[in-house]
Amino acid sequence: MQSSTTSSSSEVVYGERNSVAGSDESRVMSEKVQIMASSIYKEFELMIRKFGEESVKELMPLVVNVLESLDLSYLEKEEHLVDLEMLKEDNEQLMNQHEREKQLRKSQDQKCLEIEDSLMEQVRDLENKIESLESITRMLELKAKNA
């Protein structure tokens, strides 16, 4: 927090000192905070006219700090809302991908079951053929023995 007195008057100006070289000080405060700051400024002007500058000397830096913090909170809230929207979109895409993969898996499982059933039927058919061929072989062996 910086306090300076202008040379042309005894007016005290409050503001945050630029602590990081090259940081962007040109960012505009949110509209809500600007409206609040304007209302508070008018009230401070009335208090200064009625009670003098000393009446707000201690309070002014605190109010400026609160308004700056409030504006920063609004900015962070907007950033969080953007992040939230992006996360919702990511979540929706992931849910869609999950659903597609689940359907694909279900389809593949169904195909595997069908193939397994088909193979089991082929095994039964082949076992029946083997049994039939063994029976024919025994019968032919008996005929050959009798002949």
Give an account of the 3D structure:
By secondary structure, this protein is mainly alpha-helical. 74% of the residues lie in helices and 5% in strands. It has 2 helices and 2 strands, in the order ββαα. It has helices at residues 31-51, 59-146, and strands at residues 2-5, 12-15. Strands 1-2 form a two-stranded antiparallel sheet. A hairpin with a 6-residue loop joins strand 1 and strand 2 (12-15). Helix 1 runs antiparallel to helix 2. The longest helix is centred in the last third of the chain and has 88 residues, at 59-146. The protein is rod-shaped and about 140 Å long. Mean pLDDT is 86; it is low at 1-14 and 16-23.
Brief overview, please?
One of its GO terms (biological process) is vesicle-mediated transport. This protein has 147 residues and is mainly alpha-helical.
